[in-house]
Design brief:
Number of strands: 0
Shape: globular
Radius of gyration: 20 Å
Distance between the termini: 28 Å
Helix content: over 70%
Order of helices and strands: HHHHHHHHHHHHH
Largest sheet: none
Length: 320
C-alpha cells in the first residue's frame, strides 16, 4: 500500500456522507493522511533500504539501518522521497472515496443494509487495483530517491544517477524509457495493492470486535479506531508483503542497465530472488513495516478527529 494507506480506514469508517460531509471528510482525511505520512515515512525509508539489493548488506537489521541513516544522512535522510507520496495523499484519498463507494454500490441492492465481509473485501481489492495506476509512478520515484545514500550522492555508490527530487526523477526516468519506464513494476504494484482487500476486511472485523453490544461500528471512539487500524494495517501489509519486496527490486532498476540484466517481470524477479537469497528475502524490512503501523494510524486518526471537530462542531460527540 502507498505511504498514505492509513487514510483508507477513514474512508471505510464513513457511512454514506452527503456532499457537505464528503467535503469535510475529504479535507480531514487528507490532513490525517499527511500526518500519518510524516510519522511513518522514516520507517518506510528503512523498509526500502533493507529491501534493496545494493544497500541491504550495509545494515545488520532494522534499528541499525535507522540509526545509520540518522548518523550519516541526518533526519533529512529518513524523509527522502516523501514529496512524491505527499503530493499523492489528496489524490489517493479522493480516489479511495470514489472507487470504494462505487464497488460497494454495485454489490449492494439496498444501500441502507450493512455490507457483508465479502463485499467489503471485494470493494477494497478493487480500490487497490485502481489505485495502482496512480501509485505506481509515485512509488517508483519514492523508492529511487530513498535508495540514494551518501555514497550514491557523492558518486561512490551503486546508483549512477543522482536525482534532485521527484520531478527530476520523473524527467530522467521518462527521458531514459518514456512513459513505460515510469510505470516499471506496475504488475507487482497491482499485486501489492490488492492488500487493500485484506486491509478493509480485517479493519471491519476488528471494528466489529471492539464495538460494544447495541452500538454501531461508526460510533467507535478514536482510540479504538486506532487499535483497529493498527492491526488492520499489519494484516494488510503481511498479506502481500513479498510482492512489495519484488516491486522494490523491479522499480530500483534503472533503464540504463542492459536489458539482459533487468528483471523480465514479477515471476522472473521472484525466481531470481529466491535462487540468490532464499525465502528470507521476501520478508526483508517487515519489522519496520510492523513498527510504523500504530504510530501512523494514531497520527492519522488524531489529526482527522481534530479537523472534523473544527469543521463540524456538531459531530464532536460522535468522534470523541
Amino acid at each position: 500500500m502507498l505511504d498514505c494507506d492509513e487514510s483508507a480506514a477513514l474512508v471505510h469508517a464513513q457511512e454514506g456522507p452527503s456532499v457537505g460531509d464528503w467535503t469535510s471528510n475529504f479535507i480531514a482525511g487528507t490532513l490525517g493522511g499527511v500526518a500519518g505520512l510524516c510519522v511513518g515515512h522514516p520507517w518506510d525509508t528503512v523498509k526500502v533500504r533493507l529491501q534493496s539489493k545494493e544497500l541491504s548488506s550495509k545494515y545488520s537489521g532494522t534499528w541499525n539501518c535507522f540509526s545509520t541513516i540518522l548518523k550519516q544522512e541526518k533526519v533529512k535522510g529518513l524523509y527522502k522521497g516523501m514529496a512524491s507520496p505527499m503530493v499523492g495523499v489528496a489524490l489517493v484519498n479522493a480516489l479511495l472515496f470514489g472507487v470504494y463507494g462505487f464497488f460497494m454500490d454495485i454489490q449492494m441492492a439496498n444501500p441502507t443494509d450493512d455490507p457483508t465481509l465479502l463485499q467489503i473485501f471485494l470493494a477494497g481489492t478493487g480500490s487497490g487495483v485502481v489505485n495502482s495506476f496512480i501509485s505506481c509512478p509515485m512509488e517508483l520515484s519514492k523508492i529511487r530517491l530513498q535508495n540514494q545514500d551518501q555514497g550514491s550522492m557523492s558518486g561512490g555508490g551503486t546508483n549512477k544517477t543522482f536525482y534532485k527530487g521527484p520531478m527530476d526523477c520523473f524527467k530522467q526516468t521518462y527521458r531514459q524509457g518514456g512513459l513505460r519506464a515510469c510505470y516499471r513494476g506496475l504488475w507487482s504494484t497491482i499485486l501489492r495493492e490488492t492488500s487493500y482487500g485484506p486491509y478493509f476486511l480485517s479493519y471491519e472485523i476488528f471494528c466489529r470486535a471492539l464495538t460494544p453490544e447495541g452500538q454501531r461500528t461508526q460510533d467507535l471512539s478514536s482510540s479504538r479506531l486506532v487499535v483497529a487500524g493498527g492491526f488492520a494495517g499489519i494484516a494488510g501489509w503481511l498479506s502481500t508483503y513479498p510482492t512489495d519486496v519484488i516491486k522494490t527490486r523491479i522499480q530500483s532498476q534503472h533503464d540504463s542497465i542492459p536489458k539482459a540484466q533487468q528483471y523480465k517481470g514479477v515471476w522472473d524477479c521472484a525466481r531470481q530472488l529466491y535462487k540468490e537469497e532464499g525465502m528470507r528475502v521476501f520478508f526483508k524490512g517487515v519489522n519496520a513495516t510492523v513498527i510504523r503501523a500504530f504510530p501512523c494510524n494514531a497520527a492519522t486518526f488524531l489529526v482527522y478527529s481534530l479537523a472534523m471537530r473544527a469543521m463540524m462542531p456538531a459531530s464532536n460527540e460522535a468522534l470523541a
